[in-house]
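In this section we walk through a basic example: taking a raw amino acid sequence and producing a predicted 3D structure, encoded as discrete structure tokens. The instruction is simple. Fold the sequence below.
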Amino acid sequence: MYPNSSSKSAHLYERAQRVLPGGNTRTTVFRAPYPIYGNSGNGSRILDVDGVERIDFLNNYTALIHGHAHPSIVRAATLAVENGSCFGAPTESEIRLAEMLVERVPGCENVRFTNSGSEAVMMAVKAARAYTGRPKIAKCEGLYHGSYDFVEVSLDSSPADWGDSAQPNQVPYSAGTPASVLSDVVVLPFNDSEASLRLLEQHATELAAVIVDPLPNRIGLIPASRDFVATLRRFCTRAGVVLISDEVISFRIGYGGAAAEFGFEADLITLGKVIGGGFPVGAVCGHRDVMSVFDPTTGKPAAPHGGTFNANPVTMAAGSAALELLTPTVLADLNELGHVARQRMQAVIHEAGVPWRVTGEASLFRFVPEQSELVGYRSTWADADSARLIEGFTGSLLNHGVFVDHGGLGCLSTVMSEADVDVLEHAVEIALREANIHTLETT
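The resulting token sequence is shown next.
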């Protein structure tokens, strides 16, 4: 049972604390009192170092859309390693994956590969600045776009510092963030078209880019309204500002990505996770004129971009195999299973009398401890008590065969079936009772 101070995971964590700050090298996977250490994965299952098997409803934070060790992806990656894992030269494999993205993503004419979604966002912002010659960006309060200073602004602001809802404060995420970074970021209230447009117009001549995730995880997988993204698109077109759609997580919701599903076309799209087949990856893709800032054929490009492992053949081969498997039919089946899972979990929560929601779309879901209307960051902001409830609940899920993020995020993979959803539904039912959430919420 978790937690267990005599478990191998607990002992590994003690060992890790001697050589890693807080025993951690990735903040998102930290869980108190210790994280569970993975040992192996196969299909929809993950095995920890103590030999406990669980259904993996996290899939490395949505990256493994085909589950663990899919035979086709393993074959592609193994062959690439056998032929040489990386070179100081381009390979045909990067052309192939780029061609696949151009074929399926509306507005994607050129592609630039990176090694993570964070890098992709950073390069997209730099591309927008190089293209427009302007310094500022606009982003929405509470939305996560990776670990670049500018896009981290107001990621986790609280009632103590977030200010007016119609004009959110610029709140640093990391200690020591320069004031100059904050001053170059316009913070928008997500899904408030009128207030956001007013702020954008005030800074129109200084803005290089507006970045938005159509289905942002950090604010409870609440979708952007059609009116909101249409407002952003119209403003960017009129003001000559680059519209960036961050789809590192949300790309998986449709064959052509999230912007296509939400009915708008971005100038740049940032990708990661599912396009790498389980290997480190990121990409910027978009209109040829904006992407031309990376072009070195006539001399130093406007936005120089290197990277030792960019477009390495192992990732490119695995990513191509993953996208080949993700046909429109396969994706539709996966999304329908996700719909069924959310419905069944919400029914269990309702029956238990717990004031929570299961949010999300397609194959993504999240447990949100809130009953009021969910429209933006402030309506989903969780105080310390709510956060503890979610952590206790997800900890109970671990003991009943289900692995999700400690903050409540989950997803499905193409190798799952309704039998896996049965286990998830039953585990949610038991975990709600064990966490005694209804009693804690109402006392």
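Looking at the output, two observations stand out. Confidence is low (pLDDT under 50) at residues 439-443. The CA atoms of residues 245 and 269 lie 5 Å apart. In the next section we compare this with other chains.
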